[in-house]
Design goal:
This protein has about 250 residues and is an alpha/beta fold. A 7-stranded mixed beta sheet has the order 6-5-4-1-2-3-7, with helices on both faces. Helix 6 packs across helix 7. It holds the Pfam family DUF5753.
Length: about 250
Amino acid sequence: MAAGRSQKDAALALDCDVTKIYRIESGRTAAKPADVQALGFTYGLDRSHIDDLVSLARGAKLRGWTDGYVDMIPSDLSMLADLETSARSISDYSVEKVPGLLQTDEYARCVIDLAGELPRARRDALLRFRLERRERVFECRDRPRLRFVLHEAALRVELGTHRILADQRTHLLDLADRGVVDLRVWPFSAGLHRWMSGAFTLMEFAGKNEPSIVYTENQVDAHYLEAQQKVSRFSAMFQDMRKRSIPMKEFTS
C-alpha cells in the first residue's frame, strides 16, 4: 500500500492470478524466495532489504500440504487443492466426467491415464495426490458444505470397464444417501441450460475479507475469477441449474 502498488501489480510481477497474492498476504500460502525477490523489486525495496526478506522466506516453516507434489501437478491445481481445504462451501458443476473430489480410486486412475504415457511412479504420485486431496476435504473438522451438479453425460461416459463406472455411480449414491454431499443430476431430457461453457467450481469462504472465487479449466490452462460481478453470475447460474436438476437419489438411468 505504501509503495503505491496494488494486488494486480504484484500478480503481474509474479505472472499469477490475484488470488495467489491474496493468499500470500493473508498467510494462507507461503511465499517462495523467488516470489519475494520479484515482489521486492516491484515494491521498490533496496537490495539489502530484499536479501533479508529472501532469507526469511527460505527459512519459513509455513508449507501447504501440496508442496510435496510441487513437481507433479500444475501450480493452478495446487492452489485449488489448498483453497478447497479452507472453503466454507464448494459448489461444482461437471460435464463429461465425475469431479475429482467424488471419484473412486479406480475411476481416478483412469482419468490420470488419459494424460497419455506416464512413468508408473508419476501415475502413482498423481493418484496419491488425488486421494489426499479428497481426504483433506471430507475428513477435515470443519468440512465445507459440498454441492454438486453433474450433467448426465458424466454418469454415462465409461472409463476402463463398465464395472468401474458402475462402482463410481454406486459411490455417488452412497455419498448422497449419507448426506455427505448435496448431489444432483442435470438429465439429458432437461435439454440445454444457460451455462454451456464447461465445468466450474465456486468456492466461498468464512472470512469477511476473503472473496468468493470461481475456478475454471480446460486442457490448455486454468483461471481464477474473483471480480464480484462475474462470481455473482456463476453463483446465479449454479443456483438455477441446481433447482432444475434431479437429486441423485431420484435419478434413474
